[in-house]
Structure formats: C-alpha cells, structure tokens
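Task 17 of the worksheet. Students: predict the tertiary structure of the chain below and write it out as structure tokens. Keep your answer in the requested format; marks are given for formatting as well as content.
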Amino acid sequence: MVVIDTLRKMKPDPEVFLHALEKLKTPASDAIFIGDEMDADYRGAQGAGLTAYLIDRDDKVQGKHVRRLSSLEDLFDTHFSHLC
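Model answer:
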C-alpha cells in the first residue's frame, strides 16, 4: 500500500506511481492504473509510464485520446476477454 505518508507526495507526482511499482517489483510497461480523476489518476499514471484507464461512469469525458471505462467490469469485458 502506498499512502500520502509514505512519500509525503500526492498524485499526480510520478514518484507515487513509481514507488508503488517498485514495491510490486513490476515495470510500468506491465502495469495498468485505473482511476476516476483525470489529472491526479489518469495523467499522473501516464506520466509515470503506466497504461491508464479513466472510470467515466456518466460518460462526461470527451476525447478520443482517453482510455475510458464506465465500470471495472468494462475493463474485463473489453480489454481482457481474450484471456477467458
């Protein structure tokens, strides 16, 4: 778990994401980050080199360059269906 007291930094600082990856012993290229805030979550994760997804439950985010999900279920239905 990475919390604000761990680093004294907050998202979108890339160090927060990189610290979590280090703890998981996982390269950014093998990780995804799912969040519901455009700047702190989505752009923060992208800035650290992770594949980011934005949960957009109400279809409010417009833009073709944003990986959007309406729910976590969408992630599995759309992006990981080939694994089942």
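Marker's comment: The two ends are 28 Å apart (CA to CA). DSSP finds four helices and three strands in the chain.
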